[in-house]
Amino acid sequence: MCAGGDEDAALAALVKRAIPDVMHLFSETRSTARYEYTAYPALPDVLHKPSKQEPDQIWEARPAYTNPAYSMRAAQKDVKVTALDVNAAYLSALKVWLPIGRLEHTTGMDGVGPKRSGVHLITPAPWTHPHLPDPLGDRDTPGALWITDATLRLLLRLSGPKWALTEAPTVHESWTSGATENFLDALRKLLVAARAEAIAAGDRLTLEYVKSMYSKFVSTMGESVHNREMVRPDWMHLIHSQAFALHCGRAYKAHQAGLDVVALKHTDELHVTGDWRQVFTEGRGVSEMKTKTGDGKASGEYLVGKVGG
Question: Residue 309: what pLDDT?
């Protein structure tokens, strides 16, 4: 598979093909699908980026959490932490409730339902757990904000009887339509299988090519000059926020099992104390975790100390 023995050049050529190739795969999986979809729907203003300089109006709730009770600068560092890496986070997030029809405007809770999806303007309840990551991520500005249905589902789960970690948010208005969780599932399963085969064969080129396909599929499905085949910023925001919601879920699962969450970052980085293998399966599969490798101080296993009493 190498071009003239030059693996990097071969990889660059494959990565260049990733967007058209994944869009072709997507079209193939849609040929026998139940649901029609609109590649260029009319969208409300809140889903359009105001300008190149201004940020999106949808808050995706990216985690950027560090537990204030632990520090690498503590006088006595005697707590072992393991930095864990999530495999193929955006690939798992392709299983998410996506709106299929035209987005309709509603007020109050009228747009919220198990088989509806879109975006919602909410006022969240306060988060009062410094030892756990806020499900809304690293947010400084209080008050109302637009979130996706994936984030709202997480907030509603956390306010329910199983978790009881917060009050339910107040929903002011929504843009939603009927939805399905399986819209991208055929594509997801194809890519999961291709990824697993590449890992089993030790095929780095194919593994990086598959990664490029699913990551570029997500990143260019909004308003991107690199993919003219669809303009679905609503789907892009939903997949991003689903990846972040799944990531928060791992932190809450670890905490419930008795581990302390020391940090939760990006889509794929979870730092915990205790025996993480009792909670997560170790491996390179999409539902598994592995120890994070790298040159930084906070990779693999490292020591921290308790601070602030």
Answer: 55
